[in-house]
Design goal:
three-stranded antiparallel β-sheet, 3 domains, four-stranded antiparallel β-sheet, 14 helices, alpha+beta
Length: about 400
């Protein structure tokens, strides 16, 4: 029994952060969702501002990985289909639901809106979209809300009671219907095993690697400012100074002269004038000291892994998982971009489309993605060679309406 209690205490204890840097600001949190009383505001445990600053602003690998995924995902064309009582889908070329997605608000077009959406999703693990308009009517505009300005008001069930938006010490609550779960706020979040209300950021999973990569960059910068390496040492001749020790005045004068006239990139290559009794000993880094370069590349690969981007596409040297860039690009789309787009469209179908009526469905037009052309062609070839399928079955298999349905419409 005592062993069982010890095990439980280890499982549910809160560990202290063991590292410096921005990881220390997020380490050691535990889920508090089960201890929150209904009506109480729940804020994110992690520091979104620190996530954005250390990963997206300061780290070139994380910035490029996030940008690559969001740019690719926002380029996917979204289509709208109506579905009749027989389950036959018909593409809608003109519809109010498409209009609001093409121009969500006066400040953003489709690509701007969705790129920001996917950026928030990767940095924070949470996306909050506000629909502007009267309740139960078609929204006039869609706006993205910064995740760090949103707190969730806990409800009595799995549904939140409201979403609270706070800026400049002013708050506004957006209630959630207790039965249908409808709200003028859509919350898209990544799965988080430790929190019932907020998603888990990819930045948090890559936090240690981002810290290491940033520290490597700071180390390189310091080296450049000090001659790109520990240049050497000034050795004092003992026969001149009597024991090889400079007086405090002599030491400070030499140190000040080196700092002012021989340190920094602007003084690179400048000759050093030595007085009698001083000797210059060249120094260099050992191969072991240079391991930080490989450590930096290793951290970069881990960061790329956290965001689902093949390292080859980011120009990171090292192990090449894919034989060429075409395979790496295909993996990026199939394993990262397409699932992200489809997950987002599913949430929009569940929240936005009901405002415009029933039997409507948004879908991603994956056929127009050039990176998937070879993969799509292979599928079409296999379907075409399937002799046991009828023409209508082949068309349905690749996402088209059956010819028999079109003939009935014409007749």
């Amino acid at each position: 029994m005592a062993q069982a209690r010890t095990l439980l205490s280890k499982l549910f204890s809160r560990k202290n952060a063991q590292s410096l840097g921005f990881r220390s600001a997020i380490a050691g949190y535990t889920s508090r969702s089960y201890m929150v009383m209904p009506g109480q505001a729940v804020w994110m445990d992690r520091d979104y501002t620190q996530f954005a600053k250390e990963a997206y602003v300061k780290n070139v690998i994380a910035h490029r990985a996030i940008d690559m995924v969001s740019t690719a995902a926002s380029s996917v064309k979204i289509e709208l289909y109506s579905i009749n009582s027989k389950g036959v889908r018909h593409e809608e070329k003109f519809h109010p639901a498409l209009d609001i997605l093409k121009r969500p608000n006066p400040m953003q077009a489709t690509s701007d809106f969705f790129q920001a959406l996917y950026n928030y999703y990767q940095i924070s693990g949470n996306v909050f979209i506000q629909a502007i308009g009267a309740k139960d009517t078609q929204p006039k505009e869609l706006h993205l809300l910064r995740p760090d300005r949103i707190s969730i008001i806990a409800g009595k069930s799995a549904l939140p009671e409201a979403y609270r938006y706070t800026i400049s010490n002013q708050s506004r609550d957006f209630p959630v219907d207790k039965i249908s779960g409808k709200s003028m706020i859509l919350h898209i979040r990544k799965f988080n095993p430790l929190n019932d209300w907020y998603g888990l950021s990819s930045v948090e999973a890559a936090a240690y690697s981002i810290d290491q990569h940033n520290q490597s960059g700071a180390w390189n910068q310091s080296l450049l400012q000090n001659g790109a390496r520990p240049s050497g040492a000034l050795v004092v001749g003992g026969e001149v100074t009597g024991g090889g020790v400079l007086s405090i005045e002599q030491y400070n004068r030499v140190k000040q002269q080196i700092d002012d006239q021989f340190s920094g990139p602007e003084n690179a290559g400048r000759p050093l004038l030595l007085e009698g009794g001083l000797d210059w000993k060249e120094m260099s880094m050992s191969p072991k000291d240079m391991d930080f370069v490989e450590a930096k590349h290793s951290s970069a690969r881990d960061i790329a892994l956290a965001f689902g981007v093949p390292p080859q596409l980011l120009g990171i040297p090292g192990d090449n998982t894919y034989s060429n860039l075409q395979e790496a690009r295909l993996a990026l789309w199939e394993q990262t971009v397409i699932p992200l787009v489809e997950r987002t469209i599913d949430r929009l179908n569940n929240w936005l489309i009901p405002f415009f009526g029933d039997r409507l469905e948004l879908t991603a037009d994956t056929d127009s993605i050039t990176a998937l052309a070879a993969s799509n062609q292979a599928i079409w070839d296999r379907v075409e060679k399937s002799s046991f399928l009828t023409d209508d079955e082949k068309r349905i298999a690749v996402g088209y309406s059956p010819l028999s349905h079109k003939k009935k419409i014409i007749d």
